[in-house]
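QUALITY CONTROL LOG
STEP: pairwise intake check
CHECKER ROLE: data steward
CRITERIA: each record must contain a sequence immediately followed by its structure tokens, with no blank fields

ENTRY 1 OF 2
RESULT FIELD BELOW
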Amino acid sequence: MSYINLNGKIIEAGAAGLPVDNRAFRYGHGLFETMLVQNGAIQLPNYHWERLMGSANALYFKLPKLLTQAVLEEEVLKTVRKNGLEPLCRVRLQLYAGTGGLLEEGDSHAGYLIECFPLDEQILQLNEAGLVVGLAEGVRKANDLLANHKTSNALIYAIAARQAKENKWNDALVCNTAGNIIESTIANIFRVKDGQVSTPPLNEGCVAGVMRSYIMSTIKVTEIPLTQAMLEDADAVFLSNAIRRIKWVRMIGDKEYSPQAVQQLYRDIFP
């Protein structure tokens, strides 16, 4: 039996319910953090809380005064303990807007939902079999004031992920409206060329990933727009997120990449 945390109350997962006029359900007006908990502690917590609170402000969330960072962290760990997943798990913390229409005033206070899921320790290791990745077609992500946030409005990623499943890819890459590659459905993307590591800048429209920030604080990374030609010319490519750390890409389309450069980078970032 699994348990969730709905606004501070631990309940069985199947018993959860929200009002039908919830704004996250109606309009995708919500945001979320996906965190790794290991040995009872949130990994990279400062990165997560800084992003979450910044995104809450950007989405005009009105948080209850008592819903502080410290309270949210304790609620996350309480939920993890209730599910007996302290050794290793993935936590999804979602903030959602209150009730009402686009212009109507309803309950303006945001709520939260915490879920946690067990993980295998292998997910933390560099993958031996490289990922096979393709390019999503027919969807483009705008570089607007919401682009860098992990919002609940994820239809572009859902469609791209569906294309990945249909094509038997491990993931799909997403382009911005200029046609540059900015990320995958669940991760940031990095290119390695002649020993130099680069990643698309935030003004290209990618999510401001927690692991992206950590990698850039650990090794030298240049921020530069990523064209399809640059991707085809790369020596190596890897994806990153807070749960999977980094995963090397073996193939994109007809282009194959070597794992050696990513293997060394993994050792440098996670000694």
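ENTRY 2 OF 2
RESULT FIELD BELOW
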Amino acid sequence: MNYHNVSFSAAYGTSGQLPPSAQPEVSFAGRSNVGKSSIMNKIFGRKGLVKVSSTPGKTSTINFFECDGTTFVDLPGYGYAKVAKSEKGRWSELIEGYFAQDRRFALVLSLIDIRHDASKQDVEMVQFLEQRGLPYLVAFTKADKLSRAQQQRQVSAICRKLAQAGAKPIVLATSSKTVLGIDDLRSLIAVAISQESL
């Protein structure tokens, strides 16, 4: 796949607006301010394709991007406390409504900030993906903020917490700043797409 061929397709404010799934989809989910936009831009090698905001909780729609026969889906961030309850409810409907549909899920990237313990919402997201039997992996973001030893300790600690919740996912430390893990992510995405297309 040539990731440089990516282009923005559409944004949707409710799950009822989502078009049918016509090709493999790779979805990105995570807390607000986890670095989702930065990781997506780094995967595509495009600086401003996915809008990076200094204000957490800015993404309020599901954004679709097309690339070489695959749809990449940017889901709204969850867990930002300063958003009104009505807006939180709409985001929840968007995310839950998206996953409730009969779509061609090739891979879901559940993003967790490596600097912190997994939040309740992070664990619930991974549990949900596990219970639904959806193909997913956990990408730890902002790994450049920690030393190699600190990264290993954090990965082990978070994996223990996820295991207690019944999940043992593939995990990968990443950084949009140093490009750590980005090539590995691209490779895993390519494998997932090929498997979904069988």
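INTAKE CHECK: passed for both entries
DESCRIPTIVE NOTE, ENTRY 2: Residues 113 and 141 are 5 Å apart (CA to CA).
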